[in-house]
């Protein structure tokens, strides 16, 4: 009887791809739940968002991906945050908890028609320039309460969790 | 004629890269028909990319098939993510799938999870080639009757056609 085995190495690039995919899926589904079309975001994800987010995760500079929902009256509510935690030793494993977390964001209240969204990234320190990204100012979240939804996805070198801030 | 393909997804590919592989597999498969133009198929699937990318990124296509029905061909496509994506990548069969040569029409059936429902509906409303309904009953019967064959092939990748 013969046996065979395969080995694979999960690199920082794989970790970055895994987390970027998970963040894209979560943003698409949460925006859809809120009543905001995710079509434009998904249409542009591979060209405008994914390359930059992966590059920043690979270099370890990405602190958070933030999605602000701007209501027609000017209020920014809710806000999604995807904090990135890095593991120096590459000890994490691959996981994706989208389906488990989806039960929580299925309860989110929809937003008024005309609400738009803005994606902002924050950094741990120096970071590379990425095409299409420019300095931006975050809206205040002082009037919002924050709820942690837990870990969205992990890779050997980093993980992404979700926080939901709303009034 | 039931066929199944598994496509490596995260972390081997981005969601958009995975959708592009699926698009090309479907286009080259249907292009074997005298009645279906592969480039037209590519155009339909490019327009549906936001929905497809979201389904893949969220991980739904890891547990629910994308289904293409074209004449006698009933092609089920599933993505494989996580550690198994590395294993499946080596066994991927991305050659055109046999069975669509006599097809005169085609339809792609997409999953419609509640959380992405409106995004999927947007794609379906824009194309007569996309559906969130289950495939026709007779095709379902064919799928069920051939289920044992599919399982055997999954156990032995070298026997996949």
Description:
The complex is a heterodimer of chains A (167) and B (161). By secondary structure, chain A is α+β, with helices and mostly antiparallel strands. Chain A contains 3 helices and 6 strands. Chain A has helices at 12-34, 39-59, 98-105; strands at 62-70, 76-86, 95-96, 116-123, 145-154, 158-166. The radius of gyration of chain A is 17 Å and the shape is globular. The model of chain A has no long low-confidence stretch (mean pLDDT 93). Chain B is α/β, with parallel strands linked by helices and 161 residues long. Chain B has one domain (2-159). In chain B, helix 1 packs antiparallel against helix 2 (38-47) and helix 1 (15-30) packs across helix 3 (49-58). Mean pLDDT of chain B is 88; it is low at 138-161.
Count of spatially separate domains of chain A: 1
Average pLDDT confidence of chain A is 93
Number of strands of chain A: 6
Radius of gyration of chain B: 15 Å
């Amino acid at each position: 009887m013969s046996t065979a085995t395969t080995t694979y190495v999960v690199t920082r690039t794989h970790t970055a791809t895994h987390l970027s995919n998970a963040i894209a899926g979560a943003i698409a589904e949460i925006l859809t739940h809120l009543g905001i079309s995710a079509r434009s975001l998904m249409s542009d994800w591979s060209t405008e968002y994914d390359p930059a987010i992966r590059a920043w995760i690979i270099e370890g500079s990405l602190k958070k991906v933030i999605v602000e929902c701007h209501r027609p009256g000017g209020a920014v509510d809710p806000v999604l945050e995807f904090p990135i935690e890095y593991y120096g030793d590459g000890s994490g494993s691959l996981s994706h908890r989208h389906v488990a977390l989806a039960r929580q964001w299925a309860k989110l209240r929809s937003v008024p028609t005309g609400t738009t969204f803005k994606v902002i990234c924050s950094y741990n320190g120096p970071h590379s320039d990425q095409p299409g990204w420019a300095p931006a100012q975050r809206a205040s979240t002082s009037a919002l309460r924050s709820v942690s939804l837990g870990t969205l996805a992990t890779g050997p070198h980093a993980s992404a969790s979700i926080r939901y801030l709303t009034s | 004629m039931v066929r199944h393909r598994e496509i490596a997804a995260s972390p081997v590919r981005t969601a958009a890269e995975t959708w592009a592989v699926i698009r090309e597999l479907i286009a080259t498969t249907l292009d074997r028909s005298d009645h279906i133009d592969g480039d037209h198929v590519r155009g339909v699937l490019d327009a549906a990319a936001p929905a497809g990318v979201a389904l893949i990124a969220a991980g739904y296509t890891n547990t629910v098939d994308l289904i293409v029905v074209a004449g006698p061909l009933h092609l089920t496509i599933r993505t494989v993510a996580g550690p198994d994506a590395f294993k499946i990548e080596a066994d991927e069969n991305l050659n055109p799938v046999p069975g669509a040569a006599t097809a005169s029409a085609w339809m792609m059936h997409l999953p419609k999870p509640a959380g992405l429902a409106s995004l999927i509906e947007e794609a379906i409303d824009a194309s007569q080639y996309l559906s969130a309904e289950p495939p026709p009953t007779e095709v379902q019967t064919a799928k069920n009757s051939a289920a044992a064959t599919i399982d055997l092939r999954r156990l032995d990748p070298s026997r996949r056609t």
